[in-house]
Design brief:
Mean pLDDT: 81
Largest sheet: none
Radius of gyration: 24 Å
Distance between the termini: 90 Å
Strand content: under 5%
Structural class: mainly alpha
Number of domains: 2
Number of helices: 10
């Protein structure tokens, strides 16, 4: 945008550093770190559902976590050699490339071997394609978040309203997630203090998601209670009938 004379500065709207295309995925502003970590947590669950080779899944998530916070990736000592080689190649080109769809063939081969070992007819290549698409979704969400920061004037609120928002978030954090549906518990992963320092827009989205999760949990509990009440009523009628027969 600066090169096209459409903006005066190339500063990142989230952290203020000089921005290029790669910085969009590696920005270390609180909102950016938080969103990346949430996506990594959800990706881990998705990989498990796809029957990803356990060491491969662990190393992929470990590498993305290290990339997300800017630390050096460490390999688990039980990781097979073929996966270690794929990791080293990914290190050499960078993990940002992984988000953009540049995946080593070693990932595909390791996953194909695992599918054969467990008797699955799934394809390692299709698994790789699905992973790339999933990572593109992550990249798109990070891009959308960056744009939201750039155009966030409409989301600015007074300090009073922001404090009310934080108070409600603290209440929800104290409530915890143990009674929520499993697929929604990722919302409570990460550092709560970091969540409270993200943008107002991000906190509003988080709070709406948690409130929707509680509504789902309450509806499920109400349905269970209703079913239990009906079962008790049937049992009572059956017992009353048996008592009448015995007399």
């Amino acid at each position: 945008m600066v090169q096209w004379d459409m903006r005066e500065s190339a500063a990142c709207p989230r952290c203020g550093e000089e921005e290029d295309s790669r910085h969009v995925w590696t920005c270390h502003a609180p909102d950016a770190r938080w969103m990346r970590m949430q996506h990594i947590i959800k990706l881990d669950t998705w990989l498990e559902e796809q029957q990803t080779q356990p060491e491969l899944r662990k190393e992929l998530i470990n590498g993305l976590r290290a990339w997300s916070v800017g630390t050096v990736r460490r390999t688990f000592y039980r990781t097979p050699n073929n996966i270690r080689q794929a990791l080293e190649w990914q290190d050499s080109i960078g993990w940002t490339n992984l988000l953009e769809g540049c995946v080593d063939e070693g990932w595909t081969e390791a996953q194909a071997l695992y599918y054969r070992a467990i008797g699955s007819h799934r394809s390692g290549l299709r698994w790789t394609v699905a992973v790339i698409k999933k990572l593109w979704d992550v990249a798109w969400d990070l891009w959308e978040q960056r744009n939201g920061f750039l155009h966030q004037a409409e989301y600015q609120e007074t300090l009073h309203n922001a404090e009310n928002l934080n108070s409600e978030i603290r209440f929800q954090l104290r409530q915890g997630s143990s009674n929520l549906p499993r697929r929604m518990q990722y919302l409570f992963e990460g550092d709560p203090g970091e969540l409270l320092h993200t943008s107002i827009r991000h906190r509003q989205q988080w709070l709406r998601s948690v409130q929707a999760a509680w509504m789902m949990a309450n509806e499920r509990q109400a349905a269970q209670d209703q079913s239990m009440a009906a079962s008790r009523q049937l049992m009572r009628a059956w017992l009353d009938g048996n008592q009448a027969d015995s007399t």
